[in-house]
Amino acid sequence: MAFDKKEYMKQYRKTPQGIKTNRIGGWKTLGLKGDYEAIYQRYMNTTNCDLCNVELKQGQKGGNRKCMEHDHNTGEFRNIVCNTCNQNKSDNKIRTDNKSGYKHIYFKNSRKCWIYEKVFNGKLIKKCSKDKIKILCIKFAGILLYKY
Fold first, then answer.
1. What is the pTM assigned to this prediction?
2. 7-92 belongs to which CATH class?
3. Which end of the chain is more exposed for a tag (fewer CB within 10 A), N or C?
4. Residue 70 · residue 77 · CB < 8 Å
């Protein structure tokens, strides 16, 4: 019987270590910086929003969803908060490298393309195009169709 790596990884991702590895990998992808082990322990043990004290629901959509609040310029972790508090933070506006004038759209010099990056329903939507108009169309289609 041959080793099935795909099936092994599927099972591994369901284990506590696999869940932890996947979550920390997602944080790194989104630019979060800090002591990942300490942040993960705090994330797992936090039951209420650090700012408004509402009870947090892991995996839930909406206002009580557990979020990693961080500095959007440096990526440094600050708090574990509810989605409502996370959306209302003052630095959650337009990135400093944003040349488009639109939230969630920026130009990546190393790739010479425009990027639209948004987390919606817990999933990262990331699109890249050399054409700024295409990226704007993706953003506004999302607003019209999904109201995000």
1. 0.56
2. alpha beta
3. N
4. yes
